[in-house]
Every structure is written in structure tokens, then in C-alpha cells.
Write a structure and sequence with these properties.
Strand order of the largest sheet: 1-2
Number of strands: 2
Number of helices: 13
Shape: flat
Distance between the termini: 112 Å
Order of helices and strands: EEHHHHHHHHHHHHH
Length: 344
Amino acid sequence: MPPEPTILVKKKDGTTERVPLSSVLKNLKPAPEPSAAVPAVVKPAALQAVSVNLPARQASAPAVSRPPLIKPVKPKDRPIPVKINNASSDWHTSLLEEDAPISKADDLVAVSAPRVDQVDKVITSLSFTVPADFVNRLRSLAQLRLKDVRTTAQTKDAAMRPLLQGGLALAEPEANELEAACAALLAPSNLEAQIKRQPPAEPGIPVLVNKPSAPAPSALFKISKGPLAKVPMNDVVSRDVEVSPIDEIRLFNLIDLRRLGSAPAEAASRLRQKFLNLREESILFYLDSLTAWRESPLFSDYIKFLASAAQNNKSLATAAANTAGGITPEEVLAIAHLNQELNS
């Protein structure tokens, strides 16, 4: 017979206990079956007559006589009569429609005349000619100068400017001739005639005349008796130029060789070490250093010294004695051994 199943039950004191399932089912109370609820029928109550006892109406107070209410009557919209003065017939004319009297200025000279005749005189007086494609450019340049639009320096600059930059590519004497021809027609009287004259003032209107004001008194300069502050001056510092190891060999000269050591053999050995360092780093750097060495001033002095000695059929000591401060025979031998090691 299989064992009866149990269930874990928690007691009131908080402890738990495992009991058989049958005992738990016995202790359970069956739930009451729900009974069908019968809705209660509420019968409406009988309507009863409600009597309201109103208080007796008090005796009315004597009537007070009031004046009748009179409503204001609005006047009809009608135009207000305007008295027209027949003496003036232009009362209805707007100020914006008034034609202002225009003074005739036929005798006034234009501020900037075309000056075509003066341009023709300038071009005719020139001793040189320009290509036909640039004649209009020359006329425009002379016209701007005659109108005083361009100055003397601007005219010369435009005349000497290259053709591709909008100029005439003239030489300096030709530009001076063009400027002189234009300046001859720019007399002071012509400039004054170009100023637009003001129309005369109407009678009855006061004219304000600007009276020359008195010159302002010149400022009095006082010499300061205090100590003068010293202006700080900064030294001129040259910019450092970056030189690579290969450029250093390319710029190597006799003074640099003597700085490497007191003896020529020692200096040549240190110079050889520079080539070895470049070969350890890269064979390409080493090949570039050999090319740079053949372009150096020291190698050039070495070749010139040997060529001069061989051409004159002299020994190294005799050739070195003739060149004071130049390369010595010991330095020549040191460089020769260096070249032999580099070429090997």
C-alpha cells in the first residue's frame, strides 16, 4: 500500500508540522452554497398632498412717484458742413502732389564730364602706340586720370602693370610721358570749373554765412624734468635651422674637420665614424652620405689642391706652402685614406 501523502502545515505559534493530507481534509469546513438573492420590490408610497402655509402678505407701501425715464436720442450721422473759402482754389491739393519749382541749371558744369576730347588730345600727343586690342584700355586709363579718379602713382602703376593683370606693360619713360600729358590738361582752373555752383538764395530768406573761427591756441609743450624711462631692447635672436646628418656632411668644410681633432688623422677617423653610423642605420642613408660627401666644400678643396699640384708638377708640401691658411699635406693624406676606406 503506497504511503499516504503529507502536507506541511504552519501552526499558530509559527512552527511547521507535516501532517497527513486526510486529516487536513477532515478539518476543512464545507463552504455554504450561495442562495439566490430575491430582489426586494419597493412599492411606491402613496402620494400625499402637501400643503404649504404661506405667510400673510403685508400691506403694500404707498407708491412713490418717479419721473419718467427719458432715453437719449442719438443724432443721425450726417456730414458736417465745411465752409469753403472760394478765394483759394488749391485748398484740396495735397502737399505731396505739389510741384516744387525746379531751378534751371543749364549753365552749370557737370562735376564729372566725359572728357572725350581731352582723352583724344592725350593719345594724339603720345610718342608711342599700343596694340589695337588695348587702345580702349589706354583711353580708360587716361580718362580716369583726367577725371582725377586715380592719382599719379596709381596711373603709373596701372600703365606699367603686365597685360595679363589688366595693365599696358609700358616702360617707365612711357608711363611718365602718359602722366605728363594728362597733368598738362589738369590745370587748377579746370578743376575749379568742375565744382557745382550753388543756386542763388531766394529773396527774403536769410543766408547763414560761416565766419572763419579764430585759430585755436597752439598747445604748450612742457619739458618733463622727471627721469626718462629706459626703453627695453631685446636682442636679435636668429632662428634655428634644422640640419640632418646628411646635410651636415654636405656642408662639411676644412674648419669643421679641424674642430673634430687636433691631429688630421684623428679628425678623419671621427669623420669616418659618422659614415659608419649612417650605414648601421640604413644602407640608403649611407649611399646618400657618400653623395653628400662628394658635394661638400672640404672634398672640393681636396680635389682642387690635388689638381693644382699635379698641373704645376709640384709636391704636396710645395703646393701647400703657396696657399697660406689652406689645406695642409697631412690633411690631404688623411682625406685620401678616408676616401680609400669609403670606396672599399
